[in-house]
Amino acid sequence: MKEQILQKAAALFNRNGAETVSLRAIAAELGISDGHLRYYFKTKEDILTALFDRLEGSISSQIPPEEFLVHPEALTLSLYASFDFLYEYRFFFQCSPAMYRKYPALVQRLHTLKRVRGEQMLAVFGVFRRKGLLDPATTTRQLEIVFEQFFIISDSFIKYVSNGFYGNTEEEAKEAYLQITLSLFIPYCTPHYREIFRSKTGS
Fold first, then answer.
1. Which of 20, 159, 182, 201 has its CA 20 to 30 A from that of 43?
2. Fold for domain 1-42?
């Protein structure tokens, strides 16, 4: 039942917004009483915390093994994986500031999550540089700025997907996400890989 509650809550949060969905509404969708649901989760914050744990787990498992990172497809697959976890838990990136003021612990976890994502991306960039995918003249500061651009664009992108800005299906949105985010990295690739990645973006 705990798993069913989390799945239903995530679906309702994604559809209606986490701030508007009550525990009673989740229970009604599941056909159980409010008291039955509260046996597993006392508050909505408990549900949000459990879902955030899953989001963190998805991000932690996102990076492929280093030996796979020598392939150009590794960057594409990493970006696809990034879209998948953002889309699955998109309500976290669509919440109003008022909701986060209500749950300050989640704000702290979002800050930590951003730091972890940055560390992961810079680690991947380090492998790309050693393996010859990135221009060796690229500085760490340039890569940090690329991450900040990626962070702002990717998290903002996901806010508009539900409104049909980037196609009518999840797959269309995913391809648009790949083209937009991949274009951030192309200028820092070696000429050979620059051409490979440009073929994927149509640029």
1. 159
2. Arc Repressor Mutant, subunit A (1.10.10)
Q: At what angle do helices 44-60 and 2-16 cross, to 10 degrees?
A: 90
Topology alike, domains 1-42 and 52-201: no
Distance of CA 22 to the CA centre of its chain: 24
- How far apart CA 89 and CA 55 sit, in angstroms, is 7
CB 125 within 8 A of CB 100: no
52-201: CATH topology: Tetracycline Repressor; domain 2 (1.10.357)
- The Cα–Cα gap between 56 and 42 comes to 22
136-179 confidence digits (pLDDT tens): 899 999 999 999 999 999 888 888 887 778 877 888 899 899 88
